[in-house]
Amino acid sequence: MTSPMKAHRRVLLASLIGTSVEFYDFYIYATAAALVFGPLFFPSESQSAQLMLSYASFGLAFFARPLGAAVFGHFGDRLGRKSTLVASLMLMGGSTVLIAFLPGYAQIGWVAPLILCVLRFGQGLGLGGEWGGASLLAVENAPRGWENRYGMFPPLGAPIGFIAANGFFLLLGVLLTDEQFRDWGWRVPFLASAILVGLGLWVRLKLTETPAFLDAAAHEALPKVPMATLLRTHLRPTIAGTVGVIACFALFYLTTAFALSYGTTTLGHGRQAFLGLEIGAVLFLALGVIVSCVWADRRGAAAMLKLGFAGCVIAGLLMGPMLGAASLVVVFAWLAFALFAMGFAYGPLGGWLPSLFEPGVRYTGVSVAFNLGGIVGGALAPIFAQMLADRGGLNLVGAYLVVAGVLSLSGLMLLKRPASAA
């Protein structure tokens, strides 16, 4: 018997490419923010202050993402998934490529960080509609009983984009001196994003609309203002979904952006060695996504998410003694475990979040929940982690992960209440 996935190769490829570009774009910024953006765009006498300002620009996109979720969600629920996904990819990719041409503070003064923040905001605006739309593209085309296996393709974009981004920076580290990397080398990954965006557009422009949207448009009146309908009739699932994504964002950005910065500065590990560690460890994220999504079609997405959130708590408890260890083997073990747990906290979201909402508000609901949760779990995580590390070391940073895991578990518990209580 032919796998249903073979009949939807273009759909699954389109959902995978879009989120791969999303995470590539987002993570090249995160890596550059950790390695070079501080001194290039935010001059300060304190290295820690430079880093925090750089992380603040990184976090800016997370605050733009809910706005992008509302805008793209509105059109995605009113006009369809396909055209909205094309627009979100163009905005996201265009903002990323323009960063490659941006002069630093030494050339144009305060205008440099201002433009950087504007482009970062544009990245976030486009990203606000990307993940939710890609998930719907996959799940709304899935045969019955395959929703989570189809839904795993957008989450798999995270390890693919991460490996592409870190691999690029690792290659540049081999080919360029530190001075060349600071002067111009960091710009190359941003410029290369144009190739990935072009590929994504080529695939998406050939798609047709999803069956679920066409059915909803044909048999019911679509909401004129999806956001208003969402808040009026789907408030509890929106809150539950928002809280439920916190753990995956916290795990990802503390095991990648923060760990890279802390490991190469405070702990003194070599940049190339640490980038190599993270590329190896992120393979465990891909493994966790695949395993959890296959099991989710058999045992339910919520059961897999519980395992991931519990793993987030354990990773937080182990963060101090393991990430802070002198041995890179121990550091790798922690990174691999934390990212494998993230696979369970993240992969099933692709099928779980769309299941919380009706088709007429689904694009808005998934996008808003995913991106609001990203503010707490992603935007604030590196900033708070740096503050906590400065004040009390890695054990306090680990406590952030523990809280994130507990919060996401509470999101699942919220759905167990009767819907009429929302």
Automatic annotation (TrEMBL):
Membrane-traversing stretches: 12-41, 53-73, 85-106, 156-176, 188-205, 239-262, 274-295, 301-319, 326-346, 366-385, 397-415
Protein's UniProt name? MFS transporter
Q: What is the lineage of its organism?
A: Bacteria, Pseudomonadati, Pseudomonadota, Alphaproteobacteria, Sphingomonadales
**Which topology term describes how it sits in the membrane?**
Multi-pass membrane protein
What keywords does the record list, in alphabetical order?
Answer: Cell membrane, Membrane, Transmembrane, Transmembrane helix, Transport
One GO MF term attached to the UniProt entry: transmembrane transporter activity
Major facilitator superfamily (MFS) profile domain residues are 11-422
Give the organism, scientific name.
Sphingomonas alpina
Places the protein is found: Cell membrane
Q: SUPFAM superfamilies, alphabetically?
A: MFS general substrate transporter
Q: Which PROSITE patterns match?
A: MFS (PS50850)
Tell me the domain of life: Bacteria
Which GO cellular component terms are attached? plasma membrane
